[in-house]
Structures are given as structure tokens and as C-alpha cells.
Design goal:
heterodimer; A: mainly alpha; MetI-like fold; B: alpha/beta; Rossmann fold; six-stranded mixed beta sheet; 8 helices; 25% strand; globular
């Protein structure tokens, strides 16, 4: 339909492609396939634990005077986990899921750790993942707000000024080719040297990652009205501000929400990365770092899963806001 | 006749394109008086839409003079002298029908009460009362186009420029909207410039038919319609109507042969 140019905006489907179709399918039909896929992934994870943890399993068994092949420890060291597991299937399978510091923790070990560090400890405790998640989330949200705000401002400038289009856009693109892991320590050091520490340096790194999708999405969105739409406003002798507020901005919203979903996930990555080089004492990044210092693989995986859950919740929250906003705007197709 | 609403004198417009200059309008001279219904007809590329856009101040002629209400088209545009209806309805999907009709009123700074009154009145004028709170996607194509006409009428400019507004609609809907448009013109007394590529539509609606031809875009014939102002749809079966349609067709053919 030529007269509805904005409805099929890219990103309108991100996170929930085809609302109507999803609605129909969600009524019972899709639960089984989804559960099947989840079960298959978990089975694969358990299966992978056996060869991954085989070296430890076989060594433990040898120490307990259980016969293993090959007999000599030196021969075993040169073998891959898969070969060891195949040579000692019983031993490898029996203790693959119960080790204290497994190379790959089993799902239930991660789940138990998650439960122990969320439900069984006070949320203010240093051991609580909720506490660490909140530390990371607060920096994520602050950085996300700064980054998105900056992105929208830059996009507005780019759409209205050819000079900005030519000067800012290349830098924005270049900024994203620099590995964040390389630039994060520099940001922290520079900000520390001028007396800024705490949540703000992490938020700056989050903002650094999240402004880009906002710029790209908003530039595309603000430019989405076609020539006819713009001509219509010219026939009203509408000012630039009116054109922006009444046409460009509402037309860009579906694009903005697609960007926000990418941006919030990037923000979370930024905040976690920002916690790594500082030796931060709190936050999911700090948990990852501490876990890797002390070989606490279960703790690392628990922090990873917590970060994934956090990202899913954040993206889901934006999806809810998107649905409410767009449906209040009447964009419900 | 009082001063013409639109006066074009030896109008030229050449577009610079990648393939060299394209002459969209050549030596177009035309006066349009108050209350006329002027139909522009011709094959694509004959400059009929370009002429309308020049009147609207959306294109700038490269030669000749053009005045709208005695002003330059750009001044007329700033004075909001005309309403423009595009080929596609182009309603904002995030606004209700009422909200779309209200759009120009908001931009032009009408008071809240005045806006509400005008939205109600213009929607009634295009027989869309009761649809104020509906969204565009809830309406058929014909109703959407009527809403876009209401949007062009809402701020009550004396001049209405219509660029193939019914081109995308099926013939049955188009017939009805043509009939309604004539009624609307009769009630409001506005000056209408109507671009079409349908011969029956041009003959049925117009008090004057301007036949144009392409390469370069120019006027080949101007026909004053002898049809009465009151035109039921079956006037299209009268010999008079068929005679005018024939003359339009001849004009179009002559223009094509000359090109």
C-alpha cells in the first residue's frame, strides 16, 4: 500500500515477527517445539560435559585406585578429552557432572549456583548475584540513556545538516571498529585521572556502544518519510520544527525501537567490559573476573547466565514499551 | 471576469538530469478564473503534474511568469492559498482520520475549538462523519482519499490542486467520488485544478479541459465545456459528452503525433 509507508519499517518485527501470526501460534501450537529445542540444547550441554571434564574425571578415578586406560598419567596427558572419554566411558560419564571446579559445569550446577547466590543470600550481600547484577544494570541503564540521547541528538543533526552528515557519520562508524576491550581501559584511566570514578566510567563505555545503533536507526527513521509526505508539509508552509515534530519524529519511532533493543544489549556488554580492567569489586564483570582468577568455573557460568537473563529482561522490557507506544500511536498492524 | 486566480504566461521549466536537460514545460500560457474547474489531461511526461507543482510552489519555473492570487507561487504557498491533494492519500498511520484532517490546522495555528469545529465540518463535507476516531488502515482506499481531500479542505483555501487523486481507485469508487467532488465544488465554489489521465473523468468534471502533450510538455488544446453545471453520472451517455471526449482524444492523438 503506497499510502502507508511507515508500517513495514525495518525492526517492526524484531523480537516479535508478525504479531498476529505469533499470537495465533502462541495459543498452544508453539510451546512444544520451543520446549523440544530447549531440551535438545540442554542434552547437548550435558553430553559436552563428559569429554570436557574427562581429564579431571579420569585423574580422580586413578587417584581412587580405579583402573583407567591408559594406565600412565603421562600417556593420559597427551590425549584429548574426547579420546579419554571414549577410552573410559563409565568413569568419564559417572563424575562429569559433580566436580567442584569442572572445565564445563553441567546446567544443574549452574542453576544451583544461581539459586544459591540469588534466593539463599540477602540481596545486599556481597555474595548475591542480584547485588552484582544491579551494580552492572545501573551502569548499563545510565549509559544507555546517555548513549541513546546522544545518538538521537546526533541523528537529528545529521538529518538536518549536510555538514554533520559528512563529518559525524564517518567518525561514528570508525568509533565502532575500535575493539571495546582496547578502548575501555583507556576511558577508565583517563576519567580516573580527572577524578571521575565509580558508575560513570562504566556508563561512558556503555554509552560508547549504545549511541551507534541509535544514530543509525534514527537517521534511517527520520529520513523515512517519502517525498510526498515532505511536499505535503511544504504545501502547509510548515516550519522545520513542525516537520520534525509532526512527521519525522513519529515516523522514526519504529526504527528507534529496533535500535533501542540492540542498544540496551550493547550497553550491558559495555558495562561488563568496563568492570573487567578496573578490578572492580562488584558487578557481573567483577564476578567473571574473580571466577577466572580462582578457577571458579561454576561462578563464571552463573554470572554469564545472569548477564544473559538480564539482557533478555531488558530487551523484553523495551519490547513491552514499544508495543504500548506504537499501539497508542495507532500503529498496530 | 475578475482577476484570474492562476495566471501563467509563457511558462518554461527545464529539469537538469543526469542524461542532460529535460524540458518539462514549454511556453505554457493559461489563465484560470475564480470558481473554474479546470481538468488537465495528457499522457505521462506531458508536464501536467509539473504545472500543478509549479502553481503550488513546489517547483520553480525556469522561464515565464506565474502568479497565484496575484502573488508568486512561493508567496501564495506561504500565505496558504491552496490545498493540495496527492495521488496517494498519504495519511499519517499514527493519526486518526480526525487527527490527519487536523494536521494542517495544528501547523497553521488554529485554536483548539476552531480545529475541532473545522474537522467536524470538513469530514461531514466529504461524508466521513463518524470516522473521526478511526485509523487510516481501518478505512477503504476510497475513504482514505476522501479523508485526504478533507485534509486539503480543512483550512478553507479558495484553491484546490488535485494531482490524479483517484488514479489508484477502481472505476466504481472513482465514479462515486467524481460525483461527490462535483457536489463539493458546487457547494463551496472553490477553484479546482484537477490532473488526470482519464478522458471521461476530465470531461465529466471540468468546466475547461486543458489537453497537454509530452516532449516538451505543452498545451495542445483548451476546450470550454458546454455541459451544464449540474451533471448526473449518466450525462456521460449524451452525444454532447461523447463529442467533447472525442475532441479530447483527437487533441491527445495530435500531440502524440507531433512529438
Amino acid at each position: 500500500m503506497i499510502d502507508r509507508p511507515f508500517l513495514s519499517a525495518p525492526g517492526a518485527g524484531i523480537g516479535r515477527s508478525g504479531r498476529v501470526a505469533l499470537w495465533v501460534r502462541a495459543r498452544g501450537l508453539s510451546v512444544l517445539p520451543v520446549l523440544t529445542v530447549v531440551a535438545a540444547l540442554l542434552a547437548l550441554w550435558y553430553l559436552a560435559c563428559i569429554p570436557m571434564n574427562a581429564a579431571q574425571s579420569v585423574t580422580d578415578a586413578a587417584r581412587a585406585d580405579i583402573a583407567v586406560t591408559p594406565d600412565s598419567a603421562r600417556d593420559r596427558r597427551s590425549m584429548s578429552g574426547l579420546a579419554l572419554a571414549l577410552a573410559n566411558p563409565g568413569v568419564a560419564a559417572r563424575s562429569a557432572f559433580t566436580q567442584a571446579r569442572p572445565r564445563l559445569p553441567a546446567p544443574h550446577q549452574v542453576a544451583r549456583e544461581l539459586w544459591a547466590t540469588t534466593a539463599l543470600v540477602s540481596p545486599t550481600s556481597n555474595r548475591s548475584l542480584i547485588h552484582h547484577a544491579w551494580v552492572t544494570l545501573s551502569a548499563t541503564l545510565l549509559g544507555f540513556v546517555i548513549g541513546t540521547g546522544l545518538g538521537i541528538v546526533l541523528a537529528t543533526g545529521i538529518v538536518h545538516s549536510r555538514v554533520m552528515d559528512l563529518s559525524v557519520m564517518p567518525w561514528a562508524i570508525v568509533s565502532q571498529t575500535v575493539p571495546i576491550i582496547a578502548i575501555a581501559p583507556m576511558i577508565i584511566v583517563v576519567l580516573y585521572s580527572i577524578g571521575i570514578e565509580g558508575i560513570l566510567p562504566k556508563a561512558v563505555i556503555s554509552a560508547y556502544l549504545s549511541f551507534f545503533p541509535a544514530v543509525v536507526g534514527m537517521v534511517k527513521g527520520l529520513r523515512s518519510p517519502d517525498r510526498m509526505q515532505l511536499d505535503l508539509l511544504r504545501t502547509y508552509a510548515a516550519s522545520g520544527a513542525a516537520t520534525f515534530l509532526k512527521l519525522r519524529l513519529p515516523a522514526s519511532l519504529p526504527y528507534l525501537f529496533a535500535s533501542l533493543k540492540i542498544g540496551i544489549a550493547a550497553s550491558l556488554v559495555g558495562a561488563i567490559v568496563g568492570e573487567l580492567p578496573t578490578g572492580a569489586v562488584a558487578g557481573l564483570g567483577a564476578r567473571l573476573l574473580a571466577g577466572s582468577y580462582y578457577g571458579q568455573t561454576v561462578q563464571i557460568w552463573a554470572a554469564l547466565v545472569a548477564a544473559a537473563i538480564l539482557a533478555a529482561l531488558a530487551v523484553g522490557a523495551i519490547g513491552v514499551i514499544e508495543r504500548i507506544t506504537l499501539s497508542r500511536l495507532g500503529l498496530r498492524l | 471576469m475578475s482577476d484570474p486566480v492562476v495566471r501563467a504566461d509563457a511558462l518554461d521549466l527545464t529539469f537538469r538530469t543526469g542524461d542532460g536537460p529535460v524540458q518539462a514545460l514549454k511556453d505554457v500560457s493559461l489563465d484560470i478564473g475564480r470558481g473554474e474547474f479546470v481538468g488537465f489531461i495528457g499522457p505521462s511526461g506531458c508536464g501536467k503534474t509539473t504545472f500543478l507543482r509549479c502553481v503550488a510552489g513546489l517547483e520553480t519555473p525556469t522561464g515565464g511568469t506565474l502568479t497565484v492570487n496575484g502573488m508568486t507561487p512561493d508567496e501564495a504557498r506561504r500565505a496558504r492559498a491552496y490545498g493540495y491533494v496527492f495521488q496517494a492519500a498519504g495519511l499519517y498511520p499514527w493519526r486518526t482520520i480526525g487527527g490527519n484532517v487536523r494536521l494542517p490546522l495544528e501547523i497553521m495555528g488554529f485554536s483548539r475549538a476552531e480545529r475541532a469545529r473545522r474537522v467536524r465540518e470538513t469530514l461531514a463535507l466529504v461524508e466521513l462523519d463518524g470516522f473521526e476516531k478511526k485509523y487510516p488502515w481501518q478505512l477503504s482506499g476510497g475513504m482514505q482519499q476522501r479523508a485526504s481531500i478533507a485534509r486539503a479542505l480543512s483550512f478553507d483555501a479558495d484553491l484546490l490542486l488535485m494531482d490524479e487523486p483517484f488514479g489508484a481507485l477502481d472505476e466504481i469508487v472513482r465514479d462515486r467520488l467524481n460525483e461527490e467532488l462535483l457536489g463539493l465544488w458546487d457547494r463551496t465554489g472553490k477553484t479546482m485544478l484537477f490532473v488526470t489521465h482519464s478522458i471521461p473523468e476530465a470531461v465529466y468534471l471540468s468546466t475547461r479541459i486543458v489537453v497537454m502533450s509530452p516532449r516538451p510538455g505543452r498545451i495542445t488544446d483548451v476546450i470550454d465545456s458546454p455541459l451544464p453545471r449540474d451533471r448526473p453520472l449518466d450525462i456521460r451517455d449524451t452525444p454532447e459528452f461523447i463529442r467533447i471526449a472525442h475532441r479530447v482524444r483527437e487533441g491527445l492523438r495530435a500531440g502524440m503525433d507531433a512529438a
